[in-house]
Every structure is written in structure tokens, then in C-alpha cells.
Amino acid sequence: MQLVKKEIRTNNHKATKNVQLTIDEDFNVTDSKQDIDKIITSRGQVMIDDTEPMVDRIRVKGHVSYRILYSVAKAEGELDSMEGSVPFEETINVDDLLPSYDTSVTCEIEDLNISMIHSRKIEVKGLLQMKINVTEQDTIEGATGMENGENIQCMYKKVPYTRTVADQKDIFRVREQMTIPQSKPNIRTLIWHSVTVNEVETKPLDNKINIHGELEIFLIYRAEEQMPLQYLNLDIPFTGEVDCAGSMEGMTADIGVALGETQLNVEPDEDGEERVLNLEANLELDIRIYQEEELELLGDMFSTTACINIETETFDHESLLTRNNAKTRIVERLKRKENQAGILQVCYVEGNVKIDDTHTTEEGIVVDGAVEVNIIYIAEDDNRPMNSLNGFLPFTYLVEAKDISQDTVYHIRPTLEQISSIMLGSDEVEIKAVINLSIIAFEKKKCKVITDMSVSEIDYEKMNQLAGIIGYMVQEEDTLWNIAKRYYTSIDTIRKVNQLERDELTPGQKLIIVKG
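Above: the chain sequence. Below: its structure as C-alpha cells.
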């Protein structure tokens, strides 16, 4: 006789660590750029370039790229831009980390402040929030049955668990060429541009991930001489697929999409006029695909003619508890500061969702956060024709999730689904935003798995001490299985002798046990 075994693989969450990093660097304005009068707005993006897990620590290497839009000194109404990057490298302690574990590192800019030291030098200061998730892939061979086992009673159990089918990072590249509208003049100098990703949807298919959404492009440019500054908003839809081995339609997906490196260049059209925009944008995908499965494992065994000794191991696993996409709306007003020029027209509004804190309740997960808003507008100031308005829109939202507890492992991906603005006058703007909070939660579980067995002769002395027929009163937590195992008989025999129509027992119920 021998056990029939199956290899079981599962990913278990080991640790999460949050770390704050600071950057502080000074940069000179390059010779090709004009002197700075005032910084109008700035953008920052953090990129993780490399990670190296080690014993009890991890090395993380990355950089923060920045861009500023500024008014030019001693040139009325003129704008210019400047960009650069701040590299960083940190070694972070993570208890019990091993190089074989899977580590996922994400990083966000908590705060970025770019200030002018003088007309030829700026200071870039920032606070980065880094999150390190560690998972361990466990493999165990568990018994699912028995071959060639005579007179052996087997009990089976069903174990629901969630298997990680795919855990990978990938890049989806968007390459688009577009011509500016006929109503707009030719581009002489591209001064500023920004790209945001909106309304992204992903779906697992057979060995692929389908992705579609929209890129929004905002640009400021100088046209012909004597013409005012021009600005333009363009929406670029995209759709496509990336390979994902093992993925199948209908599986549970947890996919993060973040905008990576982007490039926007101006080229001449067929008539030689500078009207064609070439966009290259990288969307960084953090892909996890899960399959809910139910294992039928051998839970226990005994024999009426032999003594069976079983060996077990604890199988730690996670079971999908909930998958939920929650939406919440925010409507708030932003007022310009007293030292800011009045608002003539809003050119562009963008936002970024930040989560400050989460905690569990009986109803679900409470999320506290804010939408960081940046508005670029045409100002009531001929010397500085454009300005920006910044602010934070706080929110608190309950994401409903049943059976959530403090031990639940959960992950929330916040995205800004929509954002728009309405001018309420030269001093105030109303902001409307729709936030999507995508949550996936797992329940930690343990179960005993039979990994080996041995057979020896039955203890006949112990067996002979048992009477041939026994009157037995059912106790709390008794089952037909443990009674049959205790008295070297079978469940079928107990059923037949006692004429039982069901397997459930009641404390105090009287049974007749005939020894096997």
C-alpha cells in the first residue's frame, strides 16, 4: 500500500514594510535654458530601477525625474521648462527576508518641493514613501488517496485555497502619431507637456492580459512670433494585450497600471509644417492572477487489521476573501491664494490619489486619503500669462468587505477615474473627481496535510481488552469517524447496527458498537 500524492504550491504573504526616504539636491540651470523668474508648476515621478533581496535586507536603486515650468526673467510673457533626475540607492532592513523570497517594491512621491535658489539654480526636495511586500512560495506534497490499501478506512476533506497563477511585471508600450487640430497654429517651440493615464481596464484572457484605456496629453507651445502662448488637450485611446502564461478568462486579477517613461516629439507633416506629435509612453504593469481551487486531500486513515502511523505537516495557505471595486465621488472648491493672479480660464486639471491610512471594521475597510490636484490656468497678468493652483481634496470611504479581520491580508490600488473643473469666478474653481478603490483580500488559513505513513502490527492486547459489543453514549464533538477508529470498526458497521439514516450525531445519543 502507498499514498497517492499531489504537489501543492501556494504563495504566502510574509511581511510588509513601509519606509520613508528623502531627497535633497541642488541643480544649476543648463546653459541652453533661460533665467528663472518664477516657478509656475512642477511634476515628479519616481522609478524603481533595480532591487536586490538579500538576507534580512534589500537594496533598492531608483531615481526621481522632475520637470518645472517657469516664467522667464526679463522676458515679459515668456515661459520655459527644465528637467532632470535625482538618483537614490538605499539598503533597507527587512527581518527574515531571504533572497529566494518574492519581493515587490513600490514607491510614491509623498511630497515634492522644487524651489528657486536664484535665477540659475533650483533646489529639489522630496519625501518618498516606499512599500516592500514579501511573499514566500511554499511547496508541499500532500496525500490525496491510497493505492492497494486493504481494510483501510479513509476520510477525505476539501480544502479551498487560492493559487497564484501569475506574478509578473511587464511593460505595455503606447506609440501614437497625431496631428494637431487645423484650428491651432503650427508649433514653433514645445514648452511644456504632461501625460496622464485615465479609465484603464484590464481583463485576463487565455495566456494574455487585455488592456485598454486613454492617455490625456496637455501641452503648451509657442507658435509664430507675436502670437500668444498656445495650449492643447488631446485624448489618445489605446488597446492591446501582453503575454501572461497560465492566465485564463474568468480568473481573479489584481493588476496595477502606472505611467512610466514618456516622450513627446514634434515633427513636420507632409507640407513641412510642424504639426505632427509623436508619443511614446510606457505603461508599467504589476500583474497578479489568482485561481480559486478546492483540493480533496486525505484527512485521516485507520485499519481494523493493522496499526497505521501517519506523518503530517502544516500547510499555510491563503483563501480569497473578497474582490471589490468601490467608487467614491468628491466635489470640493479650491481658492487661489492672495498673492496669485486671478483666473481667466482653466487650461488643464490633473490629480493623484494618495492613501494616508486604512483600518478594518466589522463592515469592511475604512480608507482615509486625499486627491492632490494641480490646475494650470491663464492668469490675469500679462507678465506671467500662466499660473497654477494646487490643493488637496480629503476623503474617507468605507469599502464594504464581509468577514474582514485584523489578520486579513489585503491590498488596495487607488486610481483617479475622472476629474474635471468648473470656474466659479476669478478666485475659485470647483473640482469634481471620481476615485476607484480596487481591493483584494485574503484570509490566512492552516490545515494538516498527510505527507507520509507507516504500517505496523495491530496492538492485539489493547484490542482484546475491548468488549465485543459496547453500549456507547455520544459525547460532545464525537463523530462516526473517531468512534469507529477508537473501537477498530467501520463507519458502515456502526450505521448498519444502529440503523442510522444520517451521519450527524447528537450528544447523549446511545449507540451499540460491535468491535471489528
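The CA atoms of residues 233 and 450 lie 63 Å apart.
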